[in-house]
Design goal:
The chain is α/β, with parallel strands linked by helices. The chain has three domains: about 15-80, Archaeosine Trna-guanine Transglycosylase, Chain: A, domain 4, CATH 2.30.130; about 85-200, Transcription Regulator spoIIAA; about 220-414, Vaccinia Virus protein VP39 (Rossmann fold). It is built from twelve helices and 20 strands. It has helices at about 20-25, 85-100, 145-160, 170, 175-180, 225-235, 250-260, 270-285, 285-290, 300-310, 330-350, 365-380; strands spanning about 15, 30-35, 35-40, 50-55, 60-65, 70-80, 110-115, 125-130, 135-140, 160-165, 185-190, 195-200, 205-210, 240-245, 265-270, 295-300, 315-320, 350-360, 385-390, 410-414. The strands form four sheets. It has a seven-stranded mixed sheet, sandwiched between helices. It has a six-stranded mixed sheet with strand order 2-6-5-4-1-3. It is globular, with a radius of gyration of 23 Å.
């Protein structure tokens, strides 16, 4: 149990929303924005209060968590018939989510997303698993009054050896977090952790910095795309495959490329700690990547790619996996320009007959946007794709509403 968390609010809110918002909620949308609220019986209710949404005939429509500090004013938990939000409810949510991912254990994988926020009915909260360690990341203070119940359900279903609490920026800045004396990276259950946590991904070894690493310690969402690169290289059965991994971060794509049989893998990232971690992850897999030469560059991806192109260098496989360039709608146009520039730079670096994979993790950029942008760059350089594949989310990152479809990638043989 985490002490000093806000008490469960006892008073519920009765809320009516606009017809359009009600239609969207009934259609599975998990957010109700502040401007969609027509009436509210208790606008001063504390964060985490249960808000009951009624239709125009005063019939129950949905229930969610009140989030007064966010434009997403209600995070929907349940739609349809009335239900109690209690221990049994949280147990059922976790049980359903775990069942969706049951097949992953047979793939030599011990690291995956257990709860994918809105897409598992838990808007503003995610939980990742690294072997027997669970990392719970809270993005909104509305979860704090319910956190002990949620963690109890997670512990009962998943049987972890420890639970680490990570805090999103807005949650970390809230008065409730300060009053509870919570800190980002705090172990709230189990033995302390003083080193990265080892886990497996498709039989390959990685370490996750669960206390201080980006997100929860590793980018689990690209697992399937990394496996695509591994399988593509293995299928070539060529002992002289070179790979460029741009925005390599902690080296996920690099390790998979080496495991597929690449002779040379070059990792590029602007952050030296990320490159150091990539080297460490490669070393963890030395038994299966011993024939690969791993080189690295610490630098801006755009600049490094331009320099490589100017030098006339090419690679048999180029992977471009940038961070999100559009955290809000106003940044979308700039993001599209960045994706186009990356596609131009990458196309120049793909050797004839080579393979390009470019990804986007921005929900503001659609799959069609990304595909059209990359293919336009390919055409501009006079290249023709002989095969095209488009990838999305893995089973541990399900998509239950349109805005939840943030990850997409296109792979082209050129």
């Amino acid at each position: 149990m985490i002490p000093n968390l806000p008490a469960l609010p006892t008073r519920r809110l009765a809320v009516r929303v606009s017809p359009d918002a009600l239609r969207q909620v009934r259609g599975g949308h998990p957010w109700i924005y502040d401007k969609a609220i027509v009436s509210n019986s208790n606008a001063a209710a504390p964060a985490g209060s249960l808000a009951v949404i009624f239709d125009s005939d005063r019939n129950f429509a949905a229930i969610g968590l009140w989030d007064p500090q966010s434009p997403i004013r209600i995070r929907v938990l349940h739609v349809g018939k009335p239900t109690q939000i209690d221990d049994a409810f949280w147990l059922d949510v976790v049980r359903v989510a775990v069942a969706k991912r049951a097949s992953l254990a047979a793939t030599g994988t011990t690291g995956w997303r257990v709860l994918h926020g809105e897409n598992d009915g838990m808007s503003g909260l995610i939980v990742d698993r690294y072997d027997s360690t669970l990392v719970c990341k809270v993005y909104s203070e509305c979860w704090l009054p319910h956190l002990n119940q949620v963690l109890a359900a997670l512990r009962e279903i998943n049987k972890p050896s420890r639970v680490v609490l990570r805090l999103g920026r807005l949650a970390a800045a809230s008065s409730a977090v300060r009053d509870a004396h919570l800190t980002d990276g705090e172990v709230v259950f189990g033995e302390p952790v003083d080193r990265p946590v080892p886990f497996l991904e498709n039989g390959l070894s990685f370490n996750a910095d669960v206390l201080h690493g980006q997100k929860t310690g590793h980018f689990l969402d690209q697992r399937d795309n990394r496996q695509h690169i591994r399988e593509h290289i293995a299928a070539l059965a060529n002992p002289n495959i070179s790979v460029l991994d741009v925005f390599s971060c902690t080296g996920g794509f690099s390790v998979y490329a080496a495991a597929g049989g690449a002779s040379l893998v070059h990792s590029v990232d602007i952050a030296r700690p990320a490159i150091d971690t990539a080297k460490a992850n490669m070393a963890l897999n030395k038994r299966v990547v011993s024939s690969t030469t791993h080189t690295t560059t610490v630098g801006d991806a755009f600049e490094v790619m331009a320099q490589l192109g100017a030098q006339g260098q090419t690679f048999d496989v180029v992977v471009v996996d940038p961070p999100s360039f559009a955290s809000n709608a106003s940044e979308r146009d700039g993001a599209m320009r960045a994706y186009r520039k990356l596609a131009d730079l990458a196309t120049r670096l793909v050797a004839p007959g080579g393979h390009l994979l470019q990804a986007s993790c921005s929900s503001r950029v659609t799959e069609d946007d990304l595909v059209a942008t990359v293919k336009a760059a390919v055409r501009t350089h006079g290249r023709t794709a002989t095969r095209e594949q488009v990838f999305g989310h893995g089973i541990d990152h399900p998509v239950e509403f349109a805005q939840g479809r943030y990850l997409k990638a296109i792979a082209l043989d050129l």
